[in-house]
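Thread title: Can someone regenerate the structure for this chain?

I was given the following input by a collaborator and told the matching structure tokens would be attached. They weren't. Posting the sequence so someone can regenerate them.
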Amino acid sequence: MISLVIFVIEILIAIYLKDGFIRYTFGDYLVVILLYCFIKSFIKAIPIIIAIPVLIFSYIIELLQLINILEILSLNNNHLLKLILGSTFHVSDLIAYTLGIITVLIIEYSTVKFNLKKTNNL
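Best answer:
Regenerated them for you:
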């Protein structure tokens, strides 16, 4: 459910915001949370086991932007791929991805800690 809500937010950002902090930085922050939640809905694992591969995947996509992978593959005119994969490398995107994953881990581990505390008090 959370992944669906974040996905809708990402679509709204892509449609209605063409530039600025929300479009570029906050969108990247949200996308790793979206990926994490999506994968978490299919795989039962401790949060770090899902979070690290999501972060690595995000870094790889960003590094592929650095080498202009869409241009190398002659796909730079494909609007959908440009939207999904991005087209320009920014260090700030790496920071946004990292902060998104840190947020997920804080929430996940805080929730686990809260649930353990609640269970122990019963």
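The chain has one domain: 2-121.
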